[in-house]
Amino acid sequence: MKSVAYFLGLSAGFGLSLQIGMNSQLRRSLGSAYPAALVSFLVGTAALVLLVLVTRTSVPSRDTLAAIPWWAWFGGLLGAFYVAISTIVAAELGASSLLALVIA
Question: If residue 42 lies in a helix (H) or strand (E), which one and from where to where?
Fold first, then answer.
């Protein structure tokens, strides 16, 4: 099972490097980083909704959502920050430099 986790981790890293180029192209096509980040998140959100529907994953109850610590909700905000910032700086830094800075 650990080998599957390694494979998935490598796949996520590969996908992240591809995402940098794709978001840079979105920025060029749309003329601004913020709409590009929004489009990226909307496509990702649609994919996650589809995944939940296909896998028939249950939606959390209101009580479950209310029990989540307030700070845990900021994960999505940090994800949006990463996508927006990487969309802004990727063309200047390139994928390798950007990923190295992210890891650092």
Answer: helix 33-55
The predicted model scores a pTM of 0.82
pLDDT exceeds cutoff 90 at 77: yes
Q: How many Å apart are CA 19 and CA 30, to the nearest integer? A: 16
If we measure between CA atoms, which residue out of 30, 19, 29 comes closest to residue 82? 19
The three-class DSSP label of residue 52 is helix
How far apart CA 15 and CA 12 sit, in angstroms, is 5
Pull the structure tokens for residue 77: 């905000």
Is-contact 36 23, C-beta < 8 A? yes
User: What b/e readout covers 32-50, taking b as 16+ CB neighbours within 10 angstroms?
Assistant: ebeebbbbbeeeeeeeeee
Summarised one tens digit per residue, pLDDT across range 32-48 is 999 999 999 999 999 99
